[in-house]
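re: that complex we talked abt at group meeting.

here r the seqs, copy pasted straight from the sheet so there may be weird spacing, ignore it
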Amino acid sequence: MIQARDLTKDYGDKRAVDGLSFDVRPGIVTGFLGPNGSGKSTTMRLILGLDRPTKGHVTVNGKPYREHSAPLHEVGALLEARSVHTGRSARNHLLALAQTHGIARKRVDEMIDHVGLHEVARKRAGGFSLGMGQRLGIATALLGDPHTVMLDEPVNGLDPEGIQWIRMLLKNLAAEGRTVFVSSHLMSEMALTADHLIVIGRGRLIADASVPEFLAGASKPLVHVRSPQGEQLKGALASPSVTVAVIEPGLLEVNGLTAAQVGEAAAAHGIVLHELTPHQASLEEAFMDLTRDELEFAAT
Amino acid sequence: MSAIASPSASSRERVTQSRVIRSEWTKLRSVRSTSWSLLAATVLTIGFPILASAVISAHWGHRSPGERAHFNPIDPALVGSQIAQLAIGVLGVLVISAEYSTGMIRASFTAVPMRLPVLWAKAIVFAAVTFVLMLPAVLIAFFASQSILSRHNANIAFSDPHVARAVIGAALYLTVIALFSLGLGAIIRNTAGGIAAFAAVLFVIPPLMNVLPASWNDAASRYLPSNAGRAILSITHDSGSLSPWVGFAVFCGYAAFTLAVAALLLVRRDT
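got the structure back, here u go
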């Protein structure tokens, strides 16, 4: 369980995190979404006590992170920036961290096997590929068998097999009753794994909702209609609150009416329909809609 | 990667200072550059005195009686510590600055969010390693160099006045150098900056004191870290320097102050 209240962080004149309040609950995967530079990594650093908030506070499993006597058993974290001495082997890196909590060597070796780094465990971490670095970071996060797992952009640099593995891992960790908090700037990735979404932009909270709620709130009904009498149908549907776009001859995209309303209007005018498909806006589109105004550097 | 369910840890123990010390010992010995620097420091501490004594011994016949009278046999024995302090100082800075440059510090402070146990553990481990390596090194350097000088009866004995204190003092001096440089590294958090600060304090500021009026220079110079610290390496006392243990105490004071500032900043600063 992570609880942030009015969490705010300034770096000089720049406000990186602005009055964030949210709860991350156990037993589900909570996605932490926002464009690059929106304050996700800063928020995670505040949660871990690496940076101190300018205002507000955040607790993990009921206490500020710094007050836990065995923090690696409370929270396992993978930070976006690498946090490994490049001259040390993966095994010694994990061992040094394990020793702070009296965690056995056996556990270190188990975690190395668990993330598939057995072959390179004795090689310098500085020579690792991005994907291997991510695996080492995940081994570090899971080392203490923590109640809460927090991963910043975990799929970065992973191959498709690795991405698949992360998705399964996240779901399993949540199924084991843990709190799972995962950041990403890719909505599509979250759509596959998250149960709940916390969306931020420019350090401010934009949405805090379950995935279905988020979709329902963000999207207007959208219907694709195929008809040999396209022009006639277009006229029949015309109204100020409805927009109809012709995608190709005979295929219309109707915005602002449900599939049932379109079907009824066609029947009333005796228009033949070959296809009538309701579309929900994708998470990606919903995310883009929500964060369009919040992008720090909007592409022009 | 076949197993998806994460294996669970058997025990849930808390962070203690002694565990953090064990962790820092693992960190120190598992980076190759550290081992090489320590080996270099040990070799230099032993090798230079042997070389210096051999050169002095070979040219002994060319020395005037006056030069022979002024010759202090402890000087070649401890010349290696002058060079070793550079290796120890650089390593002391690196022990913490490399954690900042690689990002390891985030992992360290995530495991030990109280932070101070990390600094104390680094200080204890690095000081202990330095002393354990340097004490035998200076002893070997002393006995090897004196046995070379004994050909011309130019040697002194370990049991002569102040000699044991000076030789063991060299190891103590290097140990405090280790703590002082660690403190600088923790304050500056940057390898190049930390090494520059260390070199400035030890090697650049002392000669700069000569631009001061002589009376000021005489009054202030003896309190500089390097001059105060090296008083313990001397078996002759001149009026321009502090007495050995007072000088050493002043030097320890500098190291303690540096570490205290480092500790204060470590707890307050973001990482």
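couple things i noticed - Chain B is about 75% helix and 0% strand. Chain B has a mean pLDDT of 92.
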